[in-house]
Design brief:
CATH class: Alpha Beta
CATH topology: Inosine-uridine Nucleoside N-ribohydrolase, Chain A
Largest sheet: 9 strands, mixed
Structural class: alpha/beta
Strand order of the largest sheet: 4-3-2-1-5-6-8-14-11
Strand content: 15-25%
Helix content: 25-40%
CATH architecture: Alpha-Beta Complex
Order of helices and strands: HEHEHEHEHEHHEEHEHEHEHEEEEH
CATH superfamily: Ribonucleoside hydrolase-like
Length: 337
Amino acid sequence: MKKYLLIFFGLILSTTFAREKPKIILDTDFGGDADDLGALVMLHNFMDKGECDLLAVMNWSNEEFAVAGIDAVNRFYKHPDIPVGTRKDGIKHQEWTYGKAIADNFYHELNNKTAEDATTLYRKILSRSKDSSVTIVTIGPLKNIENLIRSKPDSISKLNGKELITKKVKEFVIMGGRFPKGKWEWNFDGGMPGVTKFVIRNITVPITFVGAEIGEKIKTGEILNTTYPKTPLYVGFLYFSTHAPWMKKYYNGKIINNPSYDQAAVLYAVRGGVGKFWDKIENGYCQPGNKGGNVWVESKKSNHSYLKLKMNPGKIAGLIENIMLNRFVNANNSDTR
């Protein structure tokens, strides 16, 4: 009888741990590519299904309407209280990005000037979080993370930024680079030489890299042509298809399929899927260069790992589209951690 009780309670414990919701901070270069919008919408829909908590959205972009667009998305999906932090330097308008198109069509209250400084907001959220409880998902360049690492003790916390990360963060999910090697990738560059190298060298908690080679095979977006147009998702993807310099030359009157770099990172952060969607390569570490390149160095196991696509990318694309559109029929049958 004792043996069966132990098995019973063991099953309860394993089920409890499997259902633990990730507590996510999303760090995004919103507006530069439609995949950031898709990733944010996915997180809202995951929250509604009880699969994660979105603690905050941090904006890397200094585009004038990026914060307004993020806030409009948060409010449209009925999560108006999600805080938004941003970099405060060099705000400028870029006509081809979709933040203004979303802000012009949907209610918002925040903008780049009224949103909180990203470093301050990071420190507030991490300081009040449980130890090893936060997952930071970066789907843009890493300047906000560098600023956090370099932050000093203050009235918010007696810990510096690096200490806060070490104590409070469970995992970084970094969409960036190419694996096992690549010459250049935007999120590892961002026009800010040396930032990626500094960040990766100063993070000691686990990092899972989701390289560009994964997302570029998973194409999503065209399905939005058949959906209700009065949503931020539709407006943003359409504007991106018609205005982004590398997209508009292919525009044929409809939303165009686009690589799902950032949606793949969010799917891993919430659902895991190792062994089903992708395999995890662990024996080595990521060595970034100064100009957006990187190489995977094989060695003994470190705190670094990267994902290698396993499932047919078309099937993953279908799953991502269902989650973006809040169509969760059969979606919860996917493997979790």
